[in-house]
């Protein structure tokens, strides 16, 4: 391997070109350097390769039958989980307009045909190395116990760290099937400054808005907060929705008659609910029950 090639290499490279001679030339050269090579002869085939395995870099022909390389690059960059992949254009077009179009569509570099293989390998190694370093830097945020999410102007997830992706999937559902749920909750956190969602195993996932990042994206920090002993005790008590309402008003200092009026039931029924609540919580008095829930009450029911 070339001694200047970063030690993190080799990686997986997708070559997209409709010219057999170019594919053959690059496949041989890349294989000799230790890269795993994927091949596509059109934009449609390239999209299929991405869906099977995300490469470390793409060598992309600008002009192909059907969808051209510029359009394909824009589509790749629009996918949050693929946007980090560096795209190097291969082009026989040397006009400034085409070069600018390549960079505008998301490309990081270009090489001019006929290809000079040593130049292609040198540029490729540099961009793959830089992408690896950038990815490691982004993933490092997880070490401190937080996940990071970037949300674009439309509320869509532009990027998320691995830990953030795991937490979001656990609390809200997997990406793809729950995209709208992710967008709504993260947009709420941006608008309000913070938001929280319960985690299936107890505790909650909290999102804190940190401000605007590049390109107008909103940055949020995610963290999980463990369930307190009081919250666990309440969850284990398995109160019914009606018992929860009665307990909430009890903790607000309401009498049995007040609770009966608010919830539209008799004081006797309220007393019966309280008997069940005391038994489930393992307490004997109203004060003890109120003390347990004072720091963990849900919002006051909208009956008053």
What does it look like?
- This protein is of the alpha/beta class.
- The protein folds into 3 domains: 12-139, Response regulator (Rossmann fold); 145-225, Beta-Lactamase; 230-293, Arc Repressor Mutant, subunit A (Orthogonal Bundle), CATH 1.10.10.10.
- Helix content is 46%, strand content 18%.
- The chain contains 12 helices and 10 strands.
- The strands form 2 sheets. The protein has a 5-stranded parallel sheet, sandwiched between helices. It has a 5-stranded antiparallel sheet with strand order 7-6-10-9-8, with helices on one face.
- The N and C termini lie far apart (75 Å).
- Residues 1-8 and 297-304 have low confidence and may be disordered.
Summarize the entry for a quick read:
This protein is an alpha/beta fold and 304 residues long.
Average pLDDT confidence is 83
Question: In what range is the share of β-strand residues?
Answer: 15-25%
Low-confidence stretches: 1-8, 297-304
Gyration radius, to the nearest Å?
29 Å
Helicity range of the residues? 40-55%
CATH superfamily of the largest domain: Response regulator
- CATH class label of the largest domain: Alpha Beta
Main β-sheet description: 5 strands, parallel
- The total domain count is 3
The gross shape turns out to be: rod-shaped
- Would you report the number of β strands? 10
